[in-house]
Amino acid sequence: MNEKITLPNSNKFFGIRFESIGGLGAHAAGKILATTAVLRMGLNGAHFSSYGSEKKGSVVRSFIRLAPAEKLIRSSAPIESPDVIVVFHSALLKNPATIAGMKAGGVLIYNGSESDEIPEIFSQLPSTTKIIRVDAQRIAVEERSRPNAVLLGTLTATVPFIDFSILLESFSEEFSQRHPEAVASNEKAFRRGAKEIDRLSNIGKGTDDLPIMRADPVWGYENAPIGGVLPLPGNTVHNDLTVSRMGWLPLLHKEKCIHCGMCDMVCPDFCLVWKKADNNEVHLQGVDYRYCKGCLRCVETCPTGALTREIEAPGMAEKHRVKLFPELEGGA
Ligand code: SF4
Ligand code: SF4
To answer: Exposed site from 37, 72, 152, 243, fewest CB < 10 Å?
Structure first.
């Protein structure tokens, strides 16, 4: 037990909420953090995650409650008013629920790049919120690691009682058993996550804790439609799969495309846009990134190299997007 580690207010739980999508490692990070707190930092802790279908790209929320060793943790409810929120993917910041319940004086860590616009919803945060930006996706790609390693490093740099060395040791041990080849790259990503951070100031305009947000169930036993029935046929065209991409997207180089259609045959989401040319041939126009989850099957299949795998820079998808259903969005 490390006697030096103390929580800011020993009468209350210290709550950390990870806001993420499947595949970025939020659940694993939460588990490692809570286990380390209990077994190596002399604290009491509890952790669980909530997620929908177990697939890459669906929303994942991970909750870590910490307390002094002598304080019992009886609750396993979601943490609605956290002291720390860690946002694993900046696209989640389009949804106000991501920062709901942020406590005044708390810490918000988010995965974002310097060239990104500051997300609009940050103005709702209490003015006392410490906002920390780290380009976790870029660091993870450069170090061949994952954003969870980077963001855990950032957590140690911003939450004083979470010890850098103890958490790093624990994180490395976890991987040394299952993926020993990943230990060195994860350590580098973790260390960079603790160093390469931007502290943003004068962003939040609020004066108090943000209100909590609970989604009301749309359907209950009285109004749920009969099982197997789609009450809104065609509703999937309104989906936005942007948050499913994990840092990569396919980019079309039209001059190399022979319009063979191989990419279209392997794309699971039909997001390639085609148009009839004057000679009645059908030509590939581009990708509608709204529906593209970044699986890159199209890139692997293209026989001419007309589709390439690119790191998704801010604004890139918007710039190169070709709309599949322009009529749904008020024109081309
Ligand atoms: S597979 Fe490549 S060459 Fe063929 S249509 Fe798609 S982008 Fe063009
Ligand atoms: S990466 Fe390519 S194959 Fe995968 S969803 Fe996007 S366009 Fe389709």
So the answer is: 72
Q: Are 114 and 90 in contact (CB under 8 A)?
A: no
Domain contains 214: no
- Domain shared by 142 and 259, yes or no: no
Assign 79 to helix, strand or coil: coil
SS3 content of the chain, % helix, strand, coil (to 5): 35, 20, 45
Is position 215 within any domain? no
Query: What confidence tens digit (pLDDT) does each residue in 127-172 have?
Result: 999 999 999 989 998 999 999 999 999 999 999 899 999 999 999 9
Please give the average per-residue pLDDT across 55-61, as a whole number.
Answer: 76
Mean pLDDT of 306-322: 91
Ligand 1 contacts (CB < 6 A) are 252, 257-263, 284, 301-302, 304, 306-307
User: Is residue 242 located within the same domain as residue 185?
Assistant: no
**Considering every ligand atom, which ligand is closest to the CA of 301?**
1
Final residue in a domain of this structure, among 200, 230, 261: 200
Q: Tell me, in angstroms, the distance from the centre of ligand 2 to residue 243's CA.
A: 14
Q: Parallel, antiparallel, or unpaired for β 84-87 and 43-51? A: unpaired
Pocket of ligand 2 (CB under 6 A): 250, 266-267, 269, 271-272, 287, 292-298
For 232-261, what is each residue's pLDDT tens digit? 777 778 788 887 887 889 999 999 999 999
